Amino acid sequence: MELTLWTYEGPPHVGAMRIASSMKDIHYVLHAPQGDTYADLLFTMIERRGKRPPVTYTTFQARDLGGDTAELVKKNIKEAVARFKPKTLLVGESCTAELIQDQPGALAKGMGFDIPIVNLELPAYSKKENWGASETFYQLIRTLLKEKISPDEKINPQRWKELGRRPKVNILGPSLLGFRCRDDVIEIQRILSEQGIDTNVVAPLGASPDDIERLIDAEINICLYQEIAETSCDWLKRNFGMEYTTTIPIGIKNTINFIKEVHNKLDLPLSNKEELEHKSKLPWYSKSVDSNYLTGKRVFIFGDGTHAIAAAKIAKEELGFEVVGLGTYSREMARQVRATAKEMNIEALITNNYLEVEDTMKRTSPELVLGTQMERHSAKRLGIPCSVISTPMHVQDVPARYSPQMGWEGANVIFDDWVHPLMMGLEEHLIDMFKHDFEFVDGHQSHLGHTATKVKTDINSEEKENQHKGGIIWTESGRAELTKVPFFVRGKVKTNTEKYAMSKGIPEISDETLYDAKAFFG
Amino acid sequence: MISLMSKVEFNKETGPREVFCGLTSIVWLHRRMPDAFFLVVGSRTCAHLIQSAAGVMIFAEPRFGTAILEEKDLAGLADAHEELDRVVNDLIERRPEIKTLFLVGSCPSEVIKLDLATVAEKLNKRFLGQVKFVNYSGSGIETTFTQGEDGALKALVPLMESSDEKKLLLVGTLANNVEDRFKKIFRNIGISNVESFPPRQSTELPKIGKNTKVLLTQPYLSDTLRDLKHRGCEIISAPFPLGIEGSTKWLLAAAKTFNISELKVHEIIAPLISRAKLALESHKNILKGKRLFLLPESQLEISLARFLHNECEMDLIEVGTPYLNRDLMKEEINLLPDNTKIVEGQHVEKQLDRVRESSPDLVVCGMGLANPLEAEGISTKWSIEMVFSPIHGIDQAADLAGLFSKPLKRNQILTSKTLVTH
Fold first, then answer.
1. Under an 8 A CB cutoff, do A79 and B140 touch?
2. How many CA atoms lie within 13 A of A492 on its CB side?
3. For residue B312, which phi and psi values (nearest 5 degrees)?
4. d(CA A353, CA A477)
5. Interface mutation vs chain A, best among B19, B26, B43, B44, most A CBs within 10 Å
6. pLDDT tens-place string over residues B216-268
7. Handedness of CA A323, A327, A328, A333 (dihedral sign)
8. What is the DSSP letter of A316?
9. Mapping DSSP to helix (H, G, I), strand (E, B) and coil, where does residue A279 land?
């Protein structure tokens, strides 16, 4: 049993709903009690969808448990098929139904429908949302394509040449409630099309079961979000020989690497290599003198595996930040996140517990946080600027404007989204410096509201509490000097100075000690 | 299954539903009693439901959480009890400010028959004098949405001490400002000993006994009411204090029990009524003659239908309610216009068919249905707002009407009616 106050991922059947709702001509009969219908609002309120998710909840009640819940399942399946006329039916159960073991998938298969039925077994007490989405997508593809497997015919990624047409690829992984998927798809399709590559199918977002059956018309698969599509890509590779890309095109370097990977797999010459770097403004904006102040900014990163790894690479290599913390809630991607962290000489944080994330955030005293909406709230409490880079989805993460994370435009969006909160941070600092000027005496309202001020007070009161910590005392001059340090690094400076004083056996911290410590730590 | 009793038409419907479960009421209960903690014993779905409905992220540390059952807990029950013990210990250690801990049962905990009562009993012994433990079920196989509050309050009744002191007890969570207004009005009409249940602190439970006169503020508390009756309390029969009419009758019923004349009540509330009528006017202009369809969710539907018809002159197409306690609702039902169609339960697809066929001007529904209906060009009001907003009492009548007039007004302002949605 695990105490959870807040969770990054929902249960696995919500993952299945993400696949069903992303697609056309599919219906999902979910053996579940009425309360589980809350999940509809994730789509209609958060994603602002004008359509109900294609889900029928069997709505069993306590009084049904003594009787025949299996009959109830069959009744709902029958009604749903008659009403919605899906081309493929998904059948599964949520946590409670799993306990009563009616096996709705098997029941559905015995009802004599002439449509494919996908039996979803998603263990609710051990797995989570992304796993559920991945498994559902895989089971759906497997059901619809397994009869087309031929042991001696494998798809040659270069067959487009013989077929006398442009190469075709599938884009796999984008789904509803995925971070900026809607716009990433447009951006990636635009890039591929510029390179003379056609998109065969995008799935699950916008695809129908017919489209799934057409997947094998393409030469290769683009695995756009590993969390959702890797299992499916693996299966398509094993059974049809379809190669798939592993580079996630977020950031300039990886967008270029992605394009190269696609060209290599298709054996398509890359003619515009030199042009590529100039397709986004990020490289120049990052190089321009104005961005000097970004150098070495301490950044803390937490999110799903795909976006956290991508963010760490961009932060370090394309913006010149220092990554002081990196973590994920995607246990499935823990190994890769650990490897990326190791490259940056830090230890990865793999956890579901947001309080642990907040503690680590506090300890690493970053100047910028890149995280989920939860880290945005934690950062707000700590008075640190933050930009959101990953699910879980919030209504703010579905902006009206075109706002991808991937490709050239994605890099532009990332530059703005990450740097603007910092600008505000700098503004905050200026306000702090000039706070005695007459314009500011009435209290300038910054975007951080009163939080930043509150944090400062906290630090001051903490100072008093800690005056005798380790026998070290802050003198008047030391304290005065400390208040002159910009608020967002003050905590770090204070800890470092105390650490320095303790190691040198200095009992009193004066303004000079502060400078000594500064020189010592560099 | 149509039975024509009196002048109102009662129907029953079963099928797939689109209604929250009783766990959802934690969202307002934890705000009412800030010294309490609500620990759901359930699945990741339960945790996800509550955080999706409650906007948990705004709290540094929320006063509710879920002990998520894992595979190993399902293997053997003895294990699950020990595990729950451990989780509770950790929680109390981390949050020493907790005075009352509600162990809240869920669908999975009910199905595996996890005995939360026994767990609570044991914990009560161990934490005697520090934390009180009570348990109830908010499971969706037994309760809908607001019924969770009924379970939580019923669980507190045994902890209420006895007293023969004469008092008026308001039962059901009210917004603090509304509660203060009611207390002032009661004082003015001559009832000064008024207490509320749930109280603002879980440790300050009112004492009850044969001279306690119970007046319900919410229509979803039938189990609590039954237990209060068993403790000797007298139940005052009244409609619910929504709108001018409901609030007036509610106040009059209380006054009658305390032998206070109707004249005295009218004298006190007359100025309130005239200013409320004035405030109601602009909303009535928008709502008048508009056709209303209420889908079942908050259990407030019958009272809302009565208010919106009698005071705002809306026409009622259908009044859905998750379940119907005819005894508890009889005063309300008597105030409904002839031929009102009440539908108990739900078959969401068939009901939506009726919504489309009847082309209503406004549909009251849950959050899962609101945007899809808006996309079809049907104005909606989501019902969860009713349980978060201060809507009770004469002074709030216009605010209550405003919740319904606003979507219609907005629809008039916005020029695009047919929309391509995404």
1. no
2. 19
3. -115, 0
4. 41
5. B44
6. 999 999 999 999 999 999 999 999 999 999 999 999 999 999 999 999 999 99
7. positive
8. I
9. coil
